[in-house]
Amino acid sequence: MSILVFVESAEGQIKKTSLEAVAYAHALGSPVTAIALGAVDQGALEALGKYGAQKVLHASDARLNEGVIQAYTSVLVKAMQDENADILVLANSSLGTPVAARVAIKTGASLATNVTDLPETSSGFVVKRSIYTGKAFAKVELKNQKKVIALKKNAAEAKEVGSNVTVTPYAVTLSDADFAVKILSSEKATGEVLLPEANIVVSGGRGMKGAEHWGILEELAKTLHAATGCSKPVSDMGWRPHHEHVGQTGVKVAPQLYIAVGISGAIQHLAGVNSSKYIVVINKDADAPFFKAADYGIVGDAFDVVPKLTEALKAAK
Ligand SMILES: Cc1cc2nc3c(=O)[nH]c(=O)nc-3n(C[C@H](O)[C@H](O)[C@H](O)COP(=O)(O)OP(=O)(O)OC[C@H]3O[C@@H](n4cnc5c(N)ncnc54)[C@H](O)[C@@H]3O)c2cc1C
Boundaries of each Electron transfer flavoprotein alpha/beta-subunit N-terminal domain copy (predicted)? Predict the structure, then answer.
C-alpha cells in the first residue's frame, strides 16, 4: 500500500500547500508517491524527494497545463490504481477540493476536507477538520478502505526529510469526456507574490484613508517579500483590486505572518485570516476588535508606525 499525493504547481514551481501535503503523507508512514500534472520544472519535481516523496510521477501531457477538474480526476483515479494507493492526499484548494470530491466518488473513498491534523488510528481512522470558517473543529472517522484527505493550509510543516528523487514520466489516456469543460482563457493576478500562496501578507483597511497612501504598505510588503491584501470596503471603493480582498467573501489566507494595518477586525474579515500563524495588528484605536485576535499589536497611527517599521526591517537586513 502506498499513499498518493497530488501536487499542484504555479509557474512551473510546486505550491507550498502541496509540499505540506507531501510532508503530511510522509508522516502517515507508508511509501509516498507524488504526482504532478502539466508543465512543471524538473528540478522542482526532483526536490519533492526532500519533503518525503519516495517516487515522483509526472504526467506532462500539455492538455493538463490548465487545471481541468474532470481530466485531473481521471488521471488521479488511474494513478491510485496503478500505485496501489489507498490514500490520496492533496491541498484543500480551489482545485484540490473539487478534484478530491470527484476522486472519492469514483473510487468509493471516504473523504475529509479542511483536515488539520494527522489521524488518530487507535480506534479507526479519525481526522480533525476545520469547520465554520475556522471557528470550530470536527472529528470525523473515515471508514472506507480508500480515503481522500484534503489538507488545510499550514496544517503540516514542509520540512526537508530526504533528498532529491528521479522523476518517472507518467503516460495518461484521456478522452473527450475529460474535457467536457474547456478553459478558453484564464487571467492571472499580477504582482510579485500571489496572495493565496504568500508566506507574509501586509493588508490595509479603511484606516489607510485612500488609494494614494498604499505606497507605505507596498514598501513594507516589498521589504518582507510579502503579498498585499485589503479589507472589503477598500476593494469596494476601488482603492485596491478585488483579488486582494481578504475575508469571508474574499480570499482566505493562511500565511506565517499577517500584518493588518488600519483594519478594525470585523468577524467577516477575521474569517479569512484566522488560519494565519501569527497576526500583527497596527491600529490607532486601542479598542479595535482585531487586537483580540492578534499575537502582537501596535497602537499607533499607521502613517507614523509603518514607515518606521519598514526602515527598522531594512536596517535589520
Ligand atoms: C455579508 C458580509 C460579508 C463581508 N465580507 C467581508 C470580507 O470578506 N472581508 C472584509 O474585510 N469585510 C467584509 N465585510 C465587511 C465587514 O463587516 C467590515 O465592514 C469591514 O471589514 C471593515 O473594514 P475596515 O476594517 O477596513 O474598515 P473600518 O471598520 O472602518 O475600520 C478602520 C480601522 O482603521 C483604524 N484606523 C483609522 N485611521 C487609522 C490610522 N491612521 N492608523 C491606524 N489605524 C487607523 C480605525 O481605528 C478602525 O479600526 C462583510 C460584511 C458583510 C455584511
Answer: 3-183
Q: What architecture (CATH level 2) is domain 195-316? A: 3-Layer(aba) Sandwich (3.40)
Taking CA atoms only, the protein residue closest to ligand 1 atom 4 is 268
Q: Whose CA is nearest to atom 49 of ligand 1?
A: 264
Tell me, in angstroms, the distance from the centre of ligand 1 to residue 204's CA.
9
The distance from CA 221 to its chain's CA centroid, rounded to whole angstroms, is: 19
Alpha helices (H) in the chain, listed in sequence order: 16-28, 42-46, 69-82, 96-107, 215-224, 232-236, 267-270, 290-293, 302-316
Kindly indicate the confidence band of residue 191, based on its pLDDT and cuts at 50, 70 and 90.
low
Q: DSSP letter at 172?
A: -
| 264 Cα–ligand 1 center, Å | 5
Top mutation candidate among 202, 249, 291 for ligand 1, by most atoms within 8 Å of CB: 249
Query: What pLDDT is stored for residue 192 in this prediction?
Result: 64
How far, rounded to the nearest angstrom, does the alpha carbon of residue 154 sit from its chain's CA centroid? Answer: 8
How is domain 2-179 classified at the CATH fold level? Rossmann fold (3.40.50)
**Per-residue pLDDT tens digits for 255-293:** 999 999 999 999 999 999 988 999 999 999 999 999 999
Which of 201, 269, 287, 290 has most ligand 1 atoms within 8 Å of its beta carbon, as the pocket-test mutant?
Answer: 269
Fold matches, 2-179 and 195-316 = yes
| Nearest CA-CA partner of 250 in 137, 135, 151, 133 | 133
pTM for this structure? 0.76
Give the pLDDT confidence of 10-57 residue by residue, as tens digits. Answer: 889 999 999 999 999 999 998 999 999 999 999 999 999 999 999 999
Distance 236 CA to ligand 1 centre (A): 11
Locate the domains of the chain by residue range: 2-179, 195-316
